Amino acid sequence: MRLLQGPKRTWLAGLTALALLALWAWINLPVSEVLRGSTRVAALPALPAFTAGQRVLLLSPHPDDETLCCAGLIQQATQAGTAVYIAWMTAGDGFEFDAALTQKVLLPRAQNMRRLGNTRAAEARAAATVLGVPAAHTFMLGYPDGGLFRLFTTNYDQPYTAPHTRANRVYAQGALSPGRPFTGRNLEADISRVLDDVRPDLVLAPAPQDFHPDHHTLSYIALRLMSQRAQQGRLRYWVVHGGLEWPLPKALHESLPLTLPPLARQLPWLRADLTPEQERVKLQAVNTYRTQTEVMGRFMRAFVRRNELLSPDPLPPTGSPRQP
């Protein structure tokens, strides 16, 4: 058998490289999935409009989640005369690479992580202002980033020491309960205090299918607290960490729809269409999180799409068919 030589060999190598490039593009820019996703999103029922006099509370695990999931919804609510409130569970102080990059240190220490937490808390308040939420309607609880599941389980009563900040109590500037030990009982007490103060008609919380442990743990806590009040029907659910690489394609694509998150595709989603102006303001709020966009700007800006999604239920309907 004679080996390929000269031009034929070069032609075959070029064809192979082209095929590999096409495969990479198919994996990373799944046109077929976007087309299928557009059809599915277009067929979703529209989210009922917000009304004047309503009170909406958004429970956000970290600074930026409220913007990624719901910046358009927040604008629509405030424009309708709905009072919007935001409560951040953590100050987002657990991302070491973020601290290293933004503070230009090789090995971030506890004080660097606490500085990151206070910076992200300030960014959160600035983003809320961009979205039309007054400072008096925001609550920074300041519990440990990455530690909510520990508070929900083994550290419900025993104080938890966060490995990144070495803190065992709330330190974030402007926190609702400064100095309160990191326990699940205290976290629930602070959330209950917010619920008592706001008396929300709707509570927007992460769905249980959201992959991030802080997110799905907050979902469990919200379900428990609202069930204790016989108000679980007031919960609405969103997803930020919805599956590998979602949302695709990465980066800013305002003309594309936000497709259904793979990990929660079976939920009974409702669609909220955004105007170009609402998309513009959402992008402005995303860019307010400079600490985050320096590290993962392509992921964050990928949420600036022509719609957002909410589910009225935390689980798929019983017997719902599995979609590919």
Describe it for me?
- With 324 residues, this protein is of the alpha/beta class.
- The protein has one domain: Rossmann fold (3-Layer(aba) Sandwich).
- The chain is 43% helix and 11% strand.
- The chain has a five-stranded parallel beta sheet with strand order 3-2-1-4-5, with helices on both faces. A two-stranded antiparallel sheet has the order 6-7.
- Helix 4 packs across helix 5.
- The longest helix is centred in the N-terminal third of the chain and has 23 residues.
- This is PIG-L domain-containing protein.
- It holds the Pfam family PIG-L.
Topology:
Blueprint: H1 6-28, H2 31-42, E1 55-60, H3 65-79, E2 83-90, H4 96-103, H5 110-130, E3 138-143, H6 148-152, H7 184-198, E4 202-206, H8 213-228, E5 235-238, E6 270-273, H9 276-288, H10 290-301, E7 307-310
Parallel strand pairs: 1-2, 1-4, 2-3, 4-5
Antiparallel strand pairs: 6-7
Helix pairs in contact: 3-9, 4-5, 4-10, 5-9, 9-10
Organism: Deinococcus radiotolerans
InterPro entries: GlcNAc_PI_deacetylase-related, LmbE-like_dom_sf
Protein name: PIG-L domain-containing protein
The major beta sheet can be summarized as: 5 strands, parallel
Could you say which overall geometry the principal axes of the C-alpha atoms support? globular
CATH class: Alpha Beta
- Helix tally equals 10
Count of β-strands: 7
Average residue-wise pLDDT: 92
